[in-house]
Structures are given as structure tokens and as C-alpha cells.
Amino acid sequence: MKSFRLLLVCIILSFISLKSHSQEKINFDDIKLDISKFIFYGKPDITKCDGSGTVLESDDYAATNAPLYSTFTIHKKQGDNYIISFLDWSTSKSMFKSEDTYNKNLVKALTYNYLAPKGTFEAFNSKTKSNDKNITVTTLRKEAFYLISKNDLKEYAYKYDPKPSYEFNYGTISYLARMRPKVGNIPGKWSTDLNLGLTAGVRKNIGKNFGLSLLAGIGITKISLDSISTKGVVKTTSEKPALTPSLNLLFSYQNFSIGFGAGMDWINEDSKESSAWIYNNKIFYGIGFGINIFQSSSNQNKTELQIQ
Q: Where does the signal sequence lie (predicted)?
């Protein structure tokens, strides 16, 4: 029993520590200029420029590295480099809970989306403080681009296929094996009773293809009544259907899941043999696998510091 618990803890920790880079890397032969969207998994070197690739020497806000997880399109190829355009950072105050987070996002917008000649941002700040409603960030030219090397794109850029942080899902589950703990003086045992159930719950997405799901389930199990599990009441092994509620923690790859569950089997005590079954309504621990048949977005993850 101790070894089983240790195995359970180790596998759960390994699930949590997994970092998925399952997204598809950039394919230079399948780029639709100004249409295909990509995301950076890293902070590659970039140089601010205009749409023709001319480097901007006098811009108030010019970054030297791309933000982690920033999204962009490719504008054109220029020699061994590419000209990219970052997707817009929001400049709408209604998107933010505080002035501080709005200002931080505004700096990102001026850095990655706009051309901001020397003195522009200072003038913008002073005029907004004087309540000049006619001065807004949208008066700036929205033509900022950045140069990046092909090697850095190859190393850090992935196709952008946004998924929500959490999803509601349901599907089927079956236990490959289950451990029934000790009852009285009868030791615990492993069983492989035939079972099938339905589950529903929440899935936390980890990258594009992986996820961690917490699911409640209900199923039907064909359990065995034998002499040991009925304390000698049953002389010949027989089978009986049981109703099986459960709670499961599953690691998922696309629509397939495997992990651990805890539940109990309930059988109707309609006979002397059934009433004698010692595992009735007793908890078990199982190794289960499931197939997800439906997912529904429930919460799109956004950060206040970077809303694109």
C-alpha cells in the first residue's frame, strides 16, 4: 500500500512538472505574409524598423528582445532576415483593472505596435495629464515592424493556435487495475474487474496537446464475489453488477487520458451473499484511462500586463 501511494505521488508530480512544447514549429514554406500567426517561446533579438526594413535610429521605445509568448505575423523576407509585425497590445482602459497595468500595457503598445519618434511619449503623457481628450495613442503612426534573423525564428517561433486555459470536458473512463485497501484482517488486493463509466469535469490545458483533468465519474463494474471477499459466505465465485462513483486525476494527450482515480463500488444487498461482500461502499484506488469526447472553452487566460 505504501509503495502504491509513493507511485501515485511521483506520477502526479511528474504530470505537474511537465512543460509542453508540443506546438508546431514555424514552417518557412507555409507562411502567408501578414496572415499566418506565430508565438515566441523565448526572447529572441529584434531590431525596430519600418515596413521596408529600414532600422529606426531615433525611436523613444525600441525593444532589443521580443517578449516571451508575444504573438506576431511575418510581413516580408529581407535577405537572411524577416520583418515581423506584433499583434496589437490593447490600449483600451476598459480592459484593465488599474491605471498601473494600463500604463504598462500602453508602453508595450508604443514599443511594439507604434512608431514613437523622440519626445512623442513625453508629449503624450503631459497632454493626457492636462486632460486634453484629443490626444490619444491612436494619433501615432501604427507602422512599427521589427527585424529578426531566420535562425532566431527557427529556434523560437511556433505556429499560434490559442487554446483556453481551462475547458469543461466529458468522456469515458475505464480502470486497468484497482487497489482495494485492507478491510479488517483481510489484506488489500489488486483487482481487474471489468468496468466502464462516464466522466465530466475541468481540464487545465498545458500547451496545445497536453492537459491535466480533474473529473468526477459514474460507471458500472462487474465485481466478483468469492469466499475471501465474503468471509466464507460464498462457496463458488459469482459476479454481480455494481454502481461505481469516482473522482479522477488524469493526464491527457489530445483526446486520450491516463492517470489515477479513487472511487467505491456499491451493490444492492438483495441477498445474503451480496450483504457479506466486504468491499461494498469501501474506497478503492485505480489506474484509469479515458477518451475525451467533448471539450468546451470556459476561461481564456489573459494577463493584465500583456493583453494582445
A: 1-22
